[in-house]
Amino acid sequence: MLALTHQFVAQLPNIDCLFGPLTPDGGLPVLCGRASSDRRLTLMLDTARLRDRAYCAAQAQQVRMSLGIR
Fold it and tell me: What would the DSSP string read from start to end of 7-62?
């Protein structure tokens, strides 16, 4: 799981990610934000799809867009 979360976090430089415990349905909650901003985003990642680079890239893009980061 650690290697999979690193793949996701590597696409979000300068964004802090705090992962929560797995949910019963296999979801992985992650709280994303920047230290210099009050904006935060909670995202539920599908652990079964974390191996898919396109999925990680799409989720990382969603984080950047939601936080107003280009």
Answer: HHHTT-TT-EEEE-PPPTTSEEEEEEE-TT-S-EEEEEEEGGGTT-HHHHHHHHHH
Distances (CA, A) of 49 to 14, 36, 44, 53: 24, 30, 12, 9
Cβ burial, residue 45 (10 Å; 0-12/13-18/19+): buried
For the entire predicted model, the pTM comes to: 0.86
Report pLDDT digits (tens) over 43-53.
999 999 999 99
CATH architecture under which domain 2-67 falls: 2-Layer Sandwich (3.30)
Encode 2-21 in three state secondary structure: HHHHHHHHCCCCCCEEEECC
